[in-house]
Predict the structure.
Amino acid sequence: MQEQHLDRRLFLRATAATGAALTVGSALGAQPAAAAPGGFPNYTYVRTLLTPSRLKYNPTGEIIFPCIRGVYDKLSSPLGRYYLYYAPHDPPGGVCLAYGDSLEGPFTEYPSNPIVSNNWSPHYSVSHVSSPHVLWNADVKEFWLYFHGENTTTRLARSTDGIHFAYDKVVLSASMLPAGTTETSYARVFRHDLPSRGARHVMVFMLNNTTNHRDIHWGWSADGRTWTYDQQPLIRHGDVGAVNVGGPHLLYRNNSTYVVYNKDKESGGDIMITEVGDDFSKRTHLGVFYNSRGTAPENGRAAAPSFGTDGGVPYMIYEAGERLAGAIAVARG
């Protein structure tokens, strides 16, 4: 298939990493867009996908941290071609699911949300769980869900259908990072080879400490369960002119690896991009990846992007609006 927007390496690796489907013959006829930094597409807002007030499960009036996954080629009878995971953040939170047949929506709320709650006996009882990130682990043909609760702890659960999960273990906690760390959360995990470290997976996440400034950190793992974490930030907030940065996601292009992440609204509210290289040795800050609009639904803040490709067209699904007062939106490249 001829890919119009992404070079072949990004197309293959990003699709594998996100599990988003590529559908032959369903191209939307979009014209090539102007390039963003690093030669990535220039994403443009299309529509709002999920609004808290329209959801049956809406304990706090807010939702965050979308994660989109193509499941049509992994499940025999999925609810839809795509599963969209998200969550409220404030207590009690709860990992939620919506499903649909197009990355542009519409998405239908799963009737039995949350699929993971803040009480899972005998494994934990916490104030909230949130920030779901689902990895398709092709080695074992399972959906691996990484989520936090409390903000100090990231956990792993596993599923064969993407809906019903079995608890596995804690994979990240503040105690694994330098003294003074107060939060280790909003983790995303990707299949990424680091031969020099004996690793086949990479995690990027947000870290807060007693200075109350949030940075992006990272770790690596051979199996996605047992991790080693770099004790130094991958991206420092001050190096990109921010008070806080968060919501990281890996992307690939031109034989290199990039991290996209969001600034806090006080620092501009945009999604930024930094090249880290395939071995994570670079720190080339490239500026704004996606410029948040001042109008609704973004109102000056875009955050926590997740990516997929449908019919050869790249999409970004993200938080739109002020933190804990926004919606889930989609932009097309």
The domain at 8-332 is CATH 2.115.10.20 (Tachylectin-2; Chain A). DSSP finds one helix and 22 strands in the chain.
